[in-house]
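User: Could you write out the 3D structure of this protein bound to zinc ion? I've included everything you need below.
Assistant: Certainly. Input first, then the structure.
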Amino acid sequence: MSLASFVVAFALSAALAQTASTDLSTAQRLARDIFQQLIEINTTDSVGDCAAAAKAMAERLKAAGFPDEDVKVLGPNPRKGNLVARLRGTGARKPILLLAHLDVVEAKREDWSFDPFKFLEQDGYYYGRGTSDDKAMAAIFIANLIRIKQEGQAGFKPDRDIIVALTADEEGGDYNGVEWLLKNHPELIEAEFGINEGGGGAIRGGKRLFNAVQASEKVYQSFLFEVKNKGGHSSRPVKDNAIYQLAAALQRLAGFDFPVNLNEVTRAYFERVSKLESGETAAAMKGVIQNPPDARSLAYLENSPAYNATMRTTCVATMLEAGHAENALPQTARATVNCRILPTETAEATRETLTKVAGDSRITITPIRQPKPSPPSPLTAEVMKPIEAVTQQMWPGVPVVPVMSTGATDSLYLRKAGIPVYGTSGIFSDIDDGRAHGKDERIGVKAFYEGQEYLYRLVKAFASANSNQRQAADK
Ligand SMILES: [Zn+2]
């Protein structure tokens, strides 16, 4: 072992030792215990039980002194319970809502290196299904709510209620908890704004890049392209063929790009990330936020699927189905085209554009299921200032970057109902090693406790007007 690698190994083992379970503070130990308990309750849609997880959390809160009327487990189905808990403040301001989902994506033992439903700490990581998506936030919210309540005995009283909702069926299933609560018990989660998954810290090559705040997301909408034909015997083909017509339309779609359309969030994203990037990427990000956007910059950024999807609506063919027999002319040809629509555009306008692009009146284009559009959440000072302040306290120099998800989260239901939601966790992870929904899902041990501290400070900042006034006065 060279001296240099010895020093690195020593530093690494010291860093790991710092976060070994024996050295945890009382608050950290509680978060870890809750985290382990949640990971080991299977909450998949197929065989899992979200209600069991919700009840386990309810028991912990009641044991910590929360009254029964402020801790509820409710749901449409015995396996799909949602927890709603409330820590009462002075009521000077409207409540804030801390949201995390309890359910997890399916995980097969044979696909993993170890049991996905057994909490495992190894080499500086916690492993298990749900460690990153989304049980870390769920565990942290419960542990922090208990901690803030205990501080009540020492005199701290939030100036607004803090509501924690842990819900079912974000990943799939028929009983989305947020949707169900909004429909059946909206008063329980009525809030000024909410915090949810969708953001988090980005690390690349061991370096902290930025702390992302998700303030917007694209709208999921699939369309069915369909061509009908009278068909006939394949030994006597005619030019009028459903498969060829559909294929030609899809080929035209392949060559088409929706127009670039930046909004408040994506503009701020490119503006801030341009300062972290270098060379051509940085220049191109500065170019696309010009009005009108610089064409060469656009052409450069389009090459990245992630940046491309941030700049425009996308529609792509994902499934095909045609014909009914090997020796017959096709009577039907169908394609599924999956769109991710910018929050400032509509599904109907997207359908009209697709109709023009398909350029063939024999092709019908119809929406598959109804879209669930949600407006971007405004980047208000009330929300962004505390996020910036806590980020600078904990990781000086690391910028806060607003992001728009190209996928969807439960924030959409709340945004649609008029409650702004911000995805922020303070949990850093490697942007090139995303394991959510995949094999050997994990979260850094240090990242978990940093996220706990971040969310603790942030929620307290959101719930104490005095500290906000002080911060404003400091500026
Ligand atoms: Zn999730």
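The mean pLDDT is 92.
User: Perfect, thank you.
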